[in-house]
Amino acid sequence: MTGAFEYQLADSWEEAVELHRIWGEDGKILAGGQSLVPMLNLRLVQPAGLIDINPIGAVEPRVADDRLVLSALTRHQDLLRSPLVREHCPILAEGAAQIGNVRVRARGTVGGSMCHADPSGEIPCMVLALDGQLIAHSPRGQRVIDAERFLRSYLTTDLAEDELLTEIRLPIRKHGQGWAFLETVRRYSDFATVEVAATATLSSDAHTVTALRVVVGGVADRPLILSDELLSAAVGGTGRDDELRAVGAAAAATVSPESDVHASADYRRRLTEVLTYRALGKAIERGRAESKGAGV
Amino acid sequence: MVAMTEAIESAPAGTTEFTVVGNSPAHHDFQDKVQGTLRYGADWKLPGMLYGKVVRSLQPCARITAIDTSAARELPGVVAVLTASDVPFNKVVDNASGGLGELTVAQPVLAEDRVRYTGEPVALIAATEPEIAAAAVDLVDVSYADLPGIFDPEEALEPEAPLVHEAGNVLVNWRIGRGDAAAAMAAADVVITGEYRSQHVEHAYLEPESGVGWSDNGVLTLRVSTQVIEHASQIARILDVSENKVRIIASYMGGGFGGKEDMTVEPYLALLAWHTQRPVRMVWDRQESILASTKRHPFVMRYRTGAKADGTLLAQEIDIIGDAGAYPCLSARVLFAGAALAAGPYRVPNITTRSRAVFTNNVPASAFRGFGAMQVVFGYESQMDKLAERLGLTPTEIRDRNQVSKGDTIPTGESLHTAVELTATRDLALARLGPRSTATGPGCRVGRGFASGMQPYGRTIWFRDHASVWLTLQTDGSLLIRSGVTDLGAGQAASLCQIASEVLGAPLEEISVYIGDTALNPPAGGTFATRQLYMSGNAVLSGARELRDSLAAVAAEELGVPPDTLVWRDGMVRTADSSGQNRGIRLAELAQMCQRRGVSTSNLHTWRARGGEFDPEAGQGDSFPDYTYGTHAAEVEVDTETGVVRVLKYAASHDVGQQINPVRVQGQIQGGVMQGLGYALMEDHALIDGQPVSTLFANYLIPTTMDMPDIEVDVVESGEGCGPLNARGIGEPPVGPCAAAIASAIKDAIGVRPNRLPITPERVLELIDEQAAGRVAKDGDHE
Question: Where is each Aldehyde oxidase/xanthine dehydrogenase a/b hammerhead domain found (chain B) (predicted)?
Fold first, then answer.
């Protein structure tokens, strides 16, 4: 029978690391299964062993050392439900709400999404925008990997063959920082055509944009961080419409997306421009409100 | 005329005294589907069953230089590998050719020396496990030598274009002509031109093509998901056996939409089961289904519409080119329907329509809900809107001045002989939209539009259609209906029960309907062309009335009253006196009385539709029995920076004459709109040089329920239709007006009219760009 595999359960991260070591490249980790199971179904991947890490369970999101700590097994829907996430990394709740559909959000995990590294995945885009860190375990010990390094290319991460992603750490939101996650889809619950995650930091008087970070997904082999140079039209400014539009236009001129059956390269560039401009506007507006202490 | 709203809760139609018809009982098919007990085509299993697979061409246009099946044959578990030389009569012949000038082109069951489209069957495998069959497919080594292909129907018309078939690239060239269009156009105050394009569309039924075949006592039986059991005769030809040696059983379908009107798995199952003498199952997975099944024809439609300054239509010149793909299938008839309906429900005294089906090396196109008459709605409704705009009239005014009425003559020269309630459907649909929504963002604009349409129900008149049914009242009072009808999931079988119950008074729970079996049922014709309520419904109605007449003679004698005063209801026949002292006989007793007296309680009845002729030279004659009319109205919001279109509100209204089952009418309209909105906004079976690039639901986008607005349905019951109890068909009509209504709403929002389907966000942005660049005329047309 084609596609047959051995199925093993891991009850702890230690056991998962050990099983992962034993199976090596013939093994696949099953977390939420929202990408892996369809690929198994279509026989696009045919692992010899499937290591189900769900029995490990996810600990609740927590805050430690000014970082929000997420277990790799945190489900997308947990990002929507957790008050800690909403308080400290609210962009995650905004973006997670746009992931797939309710079934995908109930099963899919943040770690699975990071490791699958789909260039239009919401989680990688947001983790990169937040400048997060990924914690990997292997028989050789623990490694901390910056998100930028972690996301290497299309469906490719920096994880070594024996490494397992266990945790994601994200800097918590600072005072006066706003956020926005925007995407467009051709059809409800599909992959984003283009997505943009943005954070904006305002001066204490809420007047000036002091820092921006913008990541665009769906336009390259991995989510792209817009460079300081691209953002310079708006950093130091007041968030005026023309400043934000200039950044959008510069971003669109920079990306070199590919054409596919859902959208041409030109259209993806247009979306990059519009979504970047809109995300910046929304993030700055929220940052200003935060900075004034008006809440959101 | 009674306008009904909220049909689900409604009581029977007010103008009638029906007790069963007009209600929505949860019939056997609903119950079986909800309980999961209904056995579809793929759910049938037999001992010793093999699994069949089709080896398909990877090339759209090539010579086959060699086929090496040795490695596949040697794979353990493979029982048979068949190629063209194993097929006794290697032709999928279209018996239904109208003989009106179409090219005669044969389609092989399995390709012999060349292939003409990607996905064309080349060889067949039967193996003990599905996985082994799949592995064996990859081991069949077919060597190809590329030939120049042709993938655009307009290029295929060029003199030097490569020929898909030696006979030529134009399968059929229909003409419909009336009056003098050229002279009238020259005399017109205003002439509107337009070019409209539609795309390849996949049927995307829930249940893919599937079935099981087995040989038993020298008879080959196929139990398959099919709309047409009459293909049994063609299977007999392919196997070179007499027709009495082939039996086809149609399982209840999870949708067909025309995609199971041509044969799908039948010839392959037949060959494998006949050759191995073992049961064989074949199920196409989604990818194979999207790759290999027929598609809706892409149309290129060019219109010139001439009118007087007051808006009165004077002339239409219409040219339609349909991409037939590599083989004829039902293209000739689809393009006929396109030609006949090209001007829509508007009076036009002078018209010339040319409609050609053109071969290409694309996947074959064939029947799909709407059947040519739906593509042209986008053409004629866009023209009407443009004409209104040019003359400073509202879309409603231009239609009021030109809309057909009962008694009017249509372009084929026939006159309309039933009510045309288009205005009523339009008033209802427009009223349903309610107050205009406000835009949700700075770059967003809201727009509204509507479109009307007419869709034939019943086969083309020259086919002299007929349907048979066999009704038997049993001695316990229960009723059997035997009919060759196939059930797409729309309740074709259950509707027959309601009609029979209405006439004979047998309670629904005491009626069983046996359908879709060439061995045990009288032929009813296939379920397509919105014909089964019309044809088999009429057969049941008149057959049940005949049966009732013979039963009534016995009951009348017994009760001492005239037969025509009897009341047939609740499993009894009663006298109709109003004193409350009415007397009655239970149907069981009546059946026993009849038996004792030698009166038959069974009736085999054939109902025949009106016949007629069409003259292809003159482009005049009989076309379709009647039409179902309707209007859809839409409100959309367009994000002018992303091009994303959101359908905010949608209302659909059709005149169905008389509802047999209101829930099923609602279901047809709701489902038709969903399919129509997919067609309008996202569905596109894209091909690049004949190679499909969207063969998974991940990239062939059909709308999900989350993409859909609430669809508000208003049903009009004019009491005039050619179906049973004056019903009209409603299977195909609801898919027609959607794209035109959406296009009109988008035009209202952004000021420029879409002329190409699907209207993707990217195309919306292109339209907005064109407008910004000043390349759009005042009436929204592209320059």
Answer: 35-148
